[in-house]
Amino acid sequence: MSTQIKITHTFNAPRELVFKAFTESEHLQNWWGPKGWTFEVSKSDFRTGGVFHYSQKPADGDVMWVKFVYNEIIAPEKIVYTSFFSDEEGNSVRAPFNENWPMETLNTITFIENEGKTTLTMIVIPVSPTEEEIKTFEDSKEMAQDGYTGTFDQLDEYLTKL
């Protein structure tokens, strides 16, 4: 059985622009993450083997750190990275919202342009999960999809300003 979350979203913008919004921190900080949360980039090194490390904080909660490590980049078609919750130094930690969330996920994003619009497909797969982590991941699919949908809606809005 394939345990994955798959999100598809079409943006009314050319692929180069959508890709840029995903890969440059000055763009990312304007739309990435849950609506109304504070987002700060600690490190942004967009290249194979590079790291993107950021914090996000809800208005009424504690700061959460997340780290991406880029595995593969084919501009402007594809980005593959692993992501995990971290501490301020970038060390792996358990997800603050559920200790049984997978320690690491593999994220593959593809960008396909058609007549000036860009269809993004994102697939999220847990890396070496335990049985308990698989169950938590499966149970969280809808929540995760809603989260990404909200985030991509913010990108839709942001792209109209570029």
Automatic annotation (TrEMBL):
Q: Which Pfam families does this one have? A: AHSA1
Reading the lineage from the top rank, the first entry is Bacteria
Which ranges carry the Activator of Hsp90 ATPase homologue 1/2-like C-terminal domain? 12-159
Q: Which family does it belong to?
A: Belongs to the AHA1 family.
* Name this polypeptide is given: SRPBCC domain-containing protein
Question: Could you tell me which species this protein originates from?
Answer: Metabacillus arenae
